[in-house]
Amino acid sequence: MDAREAREFRRVKILGCGSAYYAGQLGAQFIEEVARMPADAEPASEFRYRNPVIEKDTLYVAVSQSGETFDTLVAVQELKRKGGRVVGLVNVVGSSIARECDGGIYLHAGPEVAVASTKALTNMGVAFALLGIHLGRIRDLSPADGRRLVEGLQRLPEQIETVLKDEERLASIAQRLASAENLFYIGRTRGYPVAREGAQKLKEISYRHAEAYQASELKHGPLALISPEVPTVAIVPDDELVERNIGALHEIAARSGPLYVVTHPQVDLGEVQAEVITVPRNETELDPLLMMIPLQLLAYHASRALGHDVDKPRNLAKSVTVE
Mean pLDDT across the stretch 86-97? Predict the structure, then answer.
């Protein structure tokens, strides 16, 4: 898309399944924040069943690691039938979704063998950031902010290496999480898709029941389930909502819920008793990409601790090509 064509779009709709859907939620948050365009994500598996209204001023983005995910492919075909403009965000070059779309972004993450998406998921987040910066720069994003975000992206590889150096400690934490039958993952705004992805990973490969909720929604029902037997993994970035997130931690601690907090080094949790997992600080809009990494490691080591096959979890396939 050239700049004139891209300016004609007024909103962005992202479609994906599983982890690709959660990456889409991260992407929608980033695009709305940086490009100041309404953006949201929806499971592709539900999209075609509700006879969606397709708008000519909406840019549709289909996300898939394999490019063969059947539900996402059929959603793309439905969009094309109704005259929608759809681009793909796909890892496998020449895959079905890539061929069906009007254009798109190849992730070039390399082959991903395990069923649970890891490096492809991180690359989806980076690709959404690039798309958001592109859409923002043809609107109101300043050159200084554009450079700030690009420099943040360039820092990511080194910062991910820093997170990986803490793997031994994360493995010991994962052993404790693996002993719990039920877990909560919570986050707010940018942190909520991170929490959803963390819960998804744990479910996929350790077979533990993990539920993700917005931190603000805890008091509207799920707080009833908090107990010493139900650990909570909380995503607490150092952003404008840090005090509210710490308030939610107090509510959990008051009910004797064990807390594991993924946060930044400069965040002070005060009197909250928690196992703290720190990640390096990047730009606020990009912090979710780093906060996903320790959650992937926790799921991996929890699965190992329980003696499961990490690469080939039961009942799942790498490329879901059936309805």
Answer: 93
pLDDT at 219: 83
One-letter amino acid of 211: E
**Residues 62 and 86: beta-carbon distance below 8 Å:** yes
Q: Please, which residues have CB within 8 angstroms of residue 172's CB and are 6 or more apart in sequence? A: none
Angle between helix axes 287-305 and 167-178 (nearest 10 degrees) is 60
Let me know if residue 156 belongs to a domain: no
Q: Kindly state the tokens that stand for 58.
A: 């909406």
Within a domain: residue 33?
yes
Q: How many domains does the chain have?
A: 2
Distance CA 147, CA 165 (A): 28
Rounded (5°) CA angle 101-68-154:
70
What are phi and psi for residue 112, nearest 5 degrees? -115, 115
Q: Which domain holds residue 34?
A: 3-141
In a domain, 158, yes or no: no
CA-wise closest residue to 259 among 286, 227, 282, 211: 227
SS3 236: strand
